[in-house]
UniProtKB/TrEMBL annotation:
Pfam families from the UniProt entry: LIFR_D2 (PF17971), LIFR_D4 (PF25552)
Domain of life: Eukaryota
Membrane topology of the entry: Single-pass type I membrane protein
Gene Ontology cellular component annotations, sorted alphabetically: plasma membrane
Keyword RNA-binding listed: no
Keywords from the UniProt entry: Disulfide bond, Glycoprotein, Membrane, Receptor, Repeat, Signal, Transmembrane, Transmembrane helix
Subcellular location field: Membrane
Chief site of localization: membrane
Signal peptide: 1-19
Transmembrane portions of the chain: 689-712
Protein name per its UniProtKB record: Coiled-coil domain-containing protein 61-like
Keyword Glycosyltransferase: no
Length: 867
């Protein structure tokens, strides 16, 4: 410490004079920290004040000073700046500097010097603001318990109790012997609802000591939209929006002042009000900043009235009078306009007057409960509706009921008059019964009273009457009878009209019809379940006049079941209703029920499946067709699917075991699971097998006959193709031969003749062959003609059986000698010649006979000759 003071004194002595021997003009330098509510927890702003005694002697308009800030212990410059001020000898010059670390972290010294265009003065002595590291008794972290804005980067310092202590992370950078700062500034990117803690762990000789600091992170005030109004015409209330949340609480929360008066959020009231334009200023302040809001207006133009009190009423059947009072005396002369909320909805009329305290509500529903509340506002300068009064409950009195809705029904040759029950709004009270009047055009009538416990339906009995009946129905309550509802019932209703089908649409159906020129009161649409119609179970709706030539706007949905309905359209006339159109439809088409009575008739492989349609009450839609599925019984494999609109189908199947399924379908889908089944076996048909066999054999025979005929007609061509001619042998020299020619006869005999054949030198000679029996009656017939050449002289040959001839001719050859038993001298040089071709031996050569083709050798004559 003594060394530092000695150095400071030395610098002061050196700086007393300029280089030219003149003293330093800067006098009375003061260095101090700026005082705030939290400066003891961390001072950031260093203030420097001084006075220049030679200020008036300077030639320039502005005086310049160099200012340097140093960390005293290390004599390290942390800031240097040149400032310019206007010369003033009598006042102090003032300069502020915000330190990046709290001033308590270490001592800060400041020195100044004068600067102008001619020379630079000497530095003043060092003026020091002492830090708390000089006399620290405990380890401390700065700053602590202070407020910072979101997004701030704060450098913390940790002051050690002794020089031997060393802090741990994050305090790693020393700036003096006892002070360490965070290596990097700590960034706060979000607000903290409570505190953000910075821990400084100090490592001593044997243990670690913990200390730290807490800071608060938030936002400056962001209040908006200041608006000042009056409620009682004598004071002003100011309201504003809080804006962004500051996240600062208790001692650090935002404070408000309105025109210099302290107030809280939402509770700023100025009791003095003047009926003139007035300015209001709101200052919102917290440790991070200040926000100023202003508003200007005439308070009498911003009247927000309070709620009426003590609401009472007087109720009648269709109107109610409301009365109330005010708790503000100034309202008695104030022009106002009032509004009523009836049963949660704004009443369609407003009410006005000075000091208004009553009003009348009209056109209300008789015998009905209501809730009402009132609010009012300024009539001349309307600013905003006032507060609603408390809800008051009220009830209107009974009135005569409305007319009932009457209709007629024809059911099982009887006529009924029906009417719909009145709703609570239509009954105007408690219905006690109904009165029916039955009359005729002649004027006779009778009345019938019906209690509430009976059905709203009455059977009309014509008796001996042949004319139409005039029926009127009225409902009654304690206030009287409703207006009569009249309908004319014809004695012979005309229900002859064609029935059409209409499709469903959005779970309902639409009806259209041509306008009826004699309709006087619109139309009636009637509907009821087609297949389970009950007495008095009819719904209807009355339609007003059509806007065009066709009434096509009636459609209903969501009120029907999944059954078939019969829908009729009647024209309302001066007489009985006129039936115009009748249709059947399904509001919702579903999958149909099961097909009934599936039967199968078979004729061999031809099958006929037939069935009955789905019962009407199970159709659930218009049947569009049937799906017929054929399956193999063993494998459940579908082999055929047929769609038909008829109740029968014909199939032709191969023998086997089959299962048939038949199901109906509508626009709602197919009756899955609800199908009729039938199983049967298809057998082979024996008669058909016989017929098929006969047809096959006949076809084969026909083909064979055709082939045979063709072969017969083409015999020569086939013979030439299959067996061509072989040239016959030629004999040289002169020769004479004799041949035996036989022709097939009856009874197993052949007629033969001997014919002589000559060479070219000898003419042909023929002899008669007679008396030779060649073929016996029991011998095998040899087809065709044969030719035998004999070289000897002729012999007598009689008719012989074939056996005898074959015994004679055993070894026929080209040189053939007749055997002894034959009465022939000698047969030699026998030569066989075929003019066309040799034929196969088995057919033509037998027992030494050579058979010639019948076409090649024809017998010349039938005779008996001796050779």
């Amino acid at each position: 410490m003594s060394v530092w003071l000695l150095c400071a004194l030395l610098f002061s002595l050196i700086g007393l004079t300029k280089q030219d021997g003149h003293p330093v003009p800067i006098k009375e330098v003061k260095v101090y920290a700026e005082e705030t509510d939290t400066s003891n927890n961390g001072a950031w702003v260093l203030n420097v004040a001084w006075r220049d005694e030679f200020a008036e002697n300077y030639e320039f308009e502005k005086i310049s000073y160099d200012i340097e800030v140093l960390h005293t212990e290390e004599m390290k410059t942390v800031h240097y700046e040149t400032i310019h001020v206007m010369p003033n000898k009598t006042t102090f010059y003032h300069w502020k500097w915000t330190s990046p670390i709290p001033l308590q972290c270490t001592s800060h010294s400041v020195r100044l010097r004068h600067r102008d265009q001619h020379y630079i003065g000497e530095w003043t002595p060092l003026y020091t603001y002492n830090g708390q590291d000089l006399n620290a008794t405990t380890t401390t972290v700065f700053p602590h318990d202070q407020v910072f804005m979101v997004g701030s980067n704060i450098t913390f310092c940790c002051i050690m109790e002794t020089d031997s202590n060393v802090p741990l992370v994050p305090f790693l950078s020393p700036i003096s012997k006892r002070t360490y700062i965070t290596e990097e500034p700590v960034h706060f990117d979000r607000p903290s609802e409570s505190t953000s803690d910075i821990q400084c762990d100090v490592k001593g000789s044997s243990s670690v000591f913990h200390t730290g600091a807490s800071v608060f992170i938030g936002y400056p005030p962001d209040d908006q939209n200041l608006t000042c109004i009056t409620r009682d015409l004598s004071s002003v209330e100011c309201h504003w929006e809080r804006g962004r949340k500051t996240h600062l609480y208790v001692k650090r929360e935002t404070n408000y002042k309105l025109n210099g008066r302290d107030c809280k959020f939402g509770q700023c009231v100025l009791h003095a009000m003047k009926p003139q334009v007035t300015n209001w200023t709101l200052i919102a302040k917290n440790p991070l900043g200040v926000k100023t809001l202003t508003d200007t207006a005439d308070p009498t133009h911003r009247v927000w009235m309070r709620a009426p009190i003590k609401i009472s009423h007087a109720a009648y059947a269709r109107e109610v009078t409301l009365r109330w009072s005010w708790n503000e005396n100034n309202y008695t002369w104030f022009p106002m306009i009032c509004q009523v909320k009836l049963n949660g909805s704004i009443y369609n009329k407003t009410f006005s007057g000075k000091g208004l305290s009553s009003l009348v509500l009209v056109n209300l529903q008789p015998f009905a409960k209501y809730t009402a509340r009132v609010r009012c506002g300024s009539y001349e300068h309307f600013y905003e509706w006032g507060n609603w009064s408390k809800i008051t409950e009220l009830s209107t009195k009974e009135d005569v009921p409305e007319a009932v809705d009457v209709w007629i029904q024809y059911f099982e040759q009887n006529t009924y008059v029906l009417w719909k029950p009145l709703t609570q709004q239509q009954s105007h009270g408690i219905i006690t019964g109904y009165e029916i009047t039955i009359g005729n055009p002649k004027g006779r009538s009778r009345k019938i009273d019906i209690g509430l416990n009976t059905q709203l339906c009455y059977k009309i009995t014509f008796g001996n009457e042949t004319s139409d009946q005039i029926i009127t129905v009225s409902a009654k309550n304690s206030a009287g009878l409703s207006p009569p509802s009249t309908i004319i019932v014809p004695s012979n209703p005309d229900n002859e009209v064609s029935i059409s089908h209409i499709n469903s649409s959005n779970s309902g159906f639409e009806m259209s019809w041509e306008e009826y020129p004699y309709s006087t009161c619109g139309y009636v649409v009637e509907w009821f379940p087609t297949y389970n119609k009950k007495q008095c179970d009819v719904e209807w709706e009355k339609i007003s006049e059509c806007d065009s030539d066709a009434c096509d706007t009636w459609n209903r949905s969501g009120i029907f079941e999944a059954v078939r309905y019969t829908v009729s359209v009647y024209a309302c006339t001066n007489d009985a209703p006129k039936l115009l159109k009748r249709s059947q439809c399904y509001a919702i088409e579903q999958k149909p029920g099961k097909v009934q009575n599936l039967t199968v008739k078979s004729n061999g492989r031809n099958l006929e499946l037939s069935w009955d349609e789905v019962p009407l009450d199970l159709q659930k839609g218009f049947i569009q067709g049937y799906n017929v599925t054929t399956l193999l019984s063993d494998s459940e494999t579908v082999i055929n699917t047929t769609v038909t609109k008829k109740h029968k189908v014909h199939l032709k199947l191969d023998p086997g075991s089959y299962t048939f399924r038949v199901s109906a379908f509508t626009s709602g889908g197919e009756g899955e699971g609800d199908y009729a089944t039938f199983r049967m076996d298809v057998e082979k048909n024996f008669d058909q097998m016989i017929a098929a066999t006969i047809v096959g054999c006949s076809a084969a025979a026909l083909v064979f006959i055709i082939i045979t005929v063709l072969c017969y007609r083409k015999w020569k061509w086939l013979k030439k193709l299959l067996y061509p001619d072989i040239p016959e042998p030629k004999l040289a020299g002169k020769w004479i031969t004799k041949g035996i020619y036989c022709t097939q006869m009856t009874e197993g005999y052949m007629k033969c003749e001997i014919q002589e054949v000559h060479s070219l030198e000898h003419p042909a000679m023929s002899e008669s062959l007679h008396g030779l029996d060649l073929i016996s009656s029991n011998s095998k017939v040899i087809p065709g003609n044969f030719y035998l050449n004999i070289s000897e002289s002729p012999v007598d040959v009689s008719y012989y059986p074939v056996e005898k001839l074959t015994s004679i001719l055993e070894n026929a050859s080209y040189n053939l000698t007749m055997p002894e038993p034959v009465d022939v001298a000698q047969i030699s040089d026998l030569t066989l010649e075929m003019q066309d071709a040799y034929l196969p031996a088995p057919n033509f050569v037998q027992n030494n006979l050579v058979v010639k083709d019948s076409e090649s050798y024809k017998p010349q004559s039938a005779c008996r000759t001796n050779v």
